[in-house]
């Protein structure tokens, strides 16, 4: 059975909640379950059977593509109260690509498996529409990521990454190795190391083991314009 | 007023046709209009006001992204009886990116402007769902294109392009300049020229002004595997 706070989260996060029948509400309340993922766990990949709809209770999930030779391209991240439907792609007719989802931090989620969600989506057009609208929203996020990858010069991309990390965590110290940053922004470690060295020489950042400290936020931000 | 063949095309192409009210059918029949675009015309870009839903009657449209410095990345193409909804992105809540659409050949289209289509989508959930489902389908196409661009080596991409062109036109002669091919596959002319020279030396293709002839289809195809 769901905790009261989980039920409240469901009601607030699913815009179709008021358009469910009492039976459908009961069905979701009975079938939804909580889960905890440790940092760096892979929640979802092409091999794991269609997982279902994931609602993030806390932490951060990273959604990415994986190349045949193991290169990762981050598409977007999901934070508290974000919902992932691509992990239930078996109930979306037109999704034919594979994505991967990792826990970027320790995460708590609320999940509804594909069969249960699919049943309700099949019965209730509002639920089905929600799933496709959410997928379309992710489409926009992916296009944004692709524009960064394809069109921005690398100094801009790296600067933008550092600025966004700092803004998001409200902290000028970013704890990540060059290898991790390279994965997150779809580049190679050597390229990241070289550019960070340049940023450091320019006085934008201070580098130490496993972390980057932003010491001139404004100059770094100017790079991204 | 629409021609009979156009009406038939509407009925066959829009899966929601049977779920429209007689008034909604009349509205679409009255408001839909035919249009002709000459090869290389730009139908749609960030500056042109939200155009509406486009149904391809004949020819080929190319949908692409444009970088700030003018580089084009082809996302997908639309052929006879394909429908474009991203050109009506103003009626889709979650589409926040700009795409561009060119006529790749002389094209005939049937169009419904955004206001008229939006009105029906607002009234009829089947129509709204169709729009989002179609957008989700294009999401898959875009992901496919991105995988090619990000993950395939360039010889594979160019070989795949030539094979697809030949298969699609049922013709081993591909009429295109290196510049045009570079645009279509999101590369630079010099890179295309160099790789085509290699293909030609390997005996896969024969090059002449403004065209590429495939002379060893199988070997070229093997490259794409």
UniProtKB/TrEMBL annotation, chains A, B:
Q: What keywords tag this UniProt record?
A: DNA-binding, Transcription, Transcription regulation
SUPFAM superfamilies from the UniProt entry: cAMP-binding domain-like, Winged helix' DNA-binding domain
- One of the GO BP terms on file: regulation of DNA-templated transcription
Check the record and name the InterPro entries matching this protein: cNMP-bd_dom, cNMP-bd_dom_sf, HTH_CRP, RmlC-like_jellyroll, WH-like_DNA-bd_sf, WH_DNA-bd_sf
- Gene Ontology molecular function terms on file: DNA binding
Q: Give all residue intervals belonging to the HTH crp-type domain.
A: 152-218
**What domain of life is recorded for the organism?**
Bacteria
Its recorded name reads Crp/Fnr family Transcriptional regulator
**Species of the source:** Coprobacillus cateniformis
């Amino acid at each position: 059975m769901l905790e009261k706070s989980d039920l409240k989260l469901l009601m607030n996060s699913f815009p179709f909640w008021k358009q469910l029948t009492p039976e459908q509400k009961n069905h979701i309340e009975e079938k939804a379950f909580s889960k905890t993922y440790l940092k760096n766990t892979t929640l979802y990949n092409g091999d794991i059977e269609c997982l279902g709809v994931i609602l993030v209770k806390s932490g951060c999930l990273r959604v990415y593509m994986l190349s045949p030779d193991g290169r990762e391209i981050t598409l977007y991240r999901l934070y508290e109260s974000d919902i992932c439907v691509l992990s239930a792609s078996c109930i979306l007719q037109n999704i034919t690509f594979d994505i991967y989802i990792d826990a970027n931090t320790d995460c708590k989620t609320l999940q509804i498996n594909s069969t249960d969600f699919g049943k309700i989506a099949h019965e209730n057009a509002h639920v089905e529409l929600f799933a496709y609208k959410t997928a379309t929203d992710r489409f926009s996020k992916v296009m944004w990521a692709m524009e960064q990858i394809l069109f921005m010069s690398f100094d801009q991309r790296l600067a933008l990454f550092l600025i966004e990390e700092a803004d998001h965590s409200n902290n000028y110290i970013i704890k990540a190795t060059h290898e991790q940053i390279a994965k997150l922004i779809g580049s190679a470690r050597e390229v990241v190391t070289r550019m960070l060295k340049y940023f450091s020489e320019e006085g934008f950042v201070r580098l130490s083991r496993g972390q980057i400290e932003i010491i001139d936020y404004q100059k770094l931000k100017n790079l991204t314009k």
